[in-house]
TrEMBL record:
Coiled-coil ranges from the UniProt annotation: none
Membrane-crossing segments per the record: 31-54
Every Protein kinase domain range: 83-338
Stored InterPro entries: Kinase-like_dom_sf, Prot_kinase_dom, Protein_kinase_ATP_BS, Ser-Thr/Tyr_kinase_cat_dom
Subcellular locations according to the entry: Membrane
Gene3D superfamilies: Phosphorylase Kinase, domain 1, Transferase(Phosphotransferase) domain 1
Keywords: ATP-binding, Membrane, Nucleotide-binding, Signal, Transferase, Transmembrane, Transmembrane helix
Statement: the UniProt record of this protein carries the keyword Ribosomal protein: no
Species this protein is from: Cryptomeria japonica (Japanese cedar)
Protein name stated in the entry: Protein kinase domain-containing protein
MF-aspect GO terms: ATP binding; protein kinase activity
Membrane topology value: Single-pass membrane protein
Domain of life: Eukaryota
Length: 363
């Protein structure tokens, strides 16, 4: 501090202070700018992080395979879409199916699986593989849910339901009807549940299918745990073709005539005796070419042979139906010669006939 010489005109005192002790406008501006820069940087970082998380979640909404394009739904989404699983469309060997509506208005069928034994990683891997399978006659798989122990599949909705609803009246429906041949809005057939056996394992799938509804369409080797091949599908096709031709179920416990309970046995006898017209539904007789119907009946007998090696391949079946290949005279299955009386316990044992029944050895 320095005292100024006395002046007549002033008595002011001057004090000199260091520049570092005086706040300046420039310094204030620097501090504010720094703070704003930090805030901006944090905002940008937060924005980038948010975008990353969002994109990650969007990516995770699809299966692991980049080629599958399957959407991964949350359980909550499907619960809302189905209105808490209110509208049940049906129940099959792998679980129950419910009608649902997605936020964009798309109607879907949601299958709530009740038998998957795979963990989430295995389940997603199998589903991703199934998602890569596309065919005009397969019901499209849109997505899935694998949340905790819950396993659900989302398929295209088939507005015309299953084929059986067109073949049989409501009075003749039973729990053993086939559910996996569905019809779209143009009545084009679509096969459902394709490949789902991979999600539960072959052995467990055999148990489920044998006990939950389609046993009348299963080849004997499937029911009795023998080695299987693609010929099991030929057998199932033969049974389905027989029902289309006849309008009758392969197994119908409501029939008063016990000889008609297992319809294929009676049909085989009629066809063998040249009485094909007795097997054919009246509407088919009036509208179809009976020569083509007789050919179809012979093809049916070839398809439902007990010995899988005797059955034709599906390629041969198609060629025979198209008239490009002549069907060979079929062997007569042993169940065609069985006792006409059928006991309820024989049906309940395997859903069709026990092995002794199929061999004509009814006890």
């Amino acid at each position: 501090m320095r005292n100024s010489p006395p002046s007549k005109s002033s008595s002011n005192v001057s004090i000199r202070v260091g520049a570092s002790e005086l706040p300046t406008k420039r310094k204030s501006t620097t501090i504010v700018g720094t703070v704003l820069g930090i805030v901006s940087a944090l905002a940008v970082a937060l924005g980038i992080f948010s975008v990353f998380i969002w994109r990650r979640r969007q990516t995770d909404r699809y299966a692991d395979s980049s080629d599958s394009f399957l959407r991964m739904f949350s359980y909550k989404e499907l619960k809302i879409a189905t209105r808490n699983f209110k509208s049940q469309l049906g129940r099959g060997g792998f679980g129950s199916v419910f009608k649902g509506s997605l936020p964009d208005g798309t109607i879907v069928a949601v299958k709530r699986m009740e038998c998957s034994r795979q963990d989430e990683k295995q389940f997603r891997a199998e589903i991703s593989s199934l998602g890569n399978i596309h065919h005009m006659n397969l019901v499209r798989l849109r997505g899935f849910c694998a949340q905790g122990s819950r396993r659900l599949l989302v398929h295209d909705y088939m507005p015309n339901g299953s084929l059986n609803s067109f073949l049989f009246t409501s009075q003749s429906k039973s729990k053993r009807r086939p559910e996996n041949i569905l019809l779209d809005s143009n009545l084009s057939p679509k096969l459902a549940d394709f490949g789902l056996a991979r999600l539960v394992g072959r052995d467990f799938s055999r148990v489920l299918t044998t006990t939950r509804g389609t046993r009348g369409y299963l080849a004997p080797e499937w029911i009795f745990g023998l080695p299987i091949s693609t010929k099991v599908d030929v057998y199932s096709f033969g049974m389905t073709l027989l029902e289309i031709i006849s309008g009758g179920r392969n197994i119908d416990l409501n029939m008063q005539d016990s000889s008609l309970i297992y319809f294929p046995a009676w049909a085989v006898t009629q066809i063998q005796q040249g009485k094909t017209i007795n097997v054919v539904e009246k509407d088919v007789v009036e509208a179809a070419d009976m020569e083509e119907v007789r050919r179809a009946c012979v093809i049916v007998l070839l398809c439902i042979q007990e010995d899988d090696e005797v059955r034709p391949s599906m390629r041969q079946v198609v060629q025979m139906l198209e008239g490009k290949m002549e069907p060979q005279p079929p062997q007569i299955p042993s169940y065609a010669f069985m006792d006409k009386h059928v006991d309820q316990s024989d049906i309940d044992s395997y859903g069709s006939y026990s092995h002794s029944v199929l061999s004509g050895l009814l006890v």
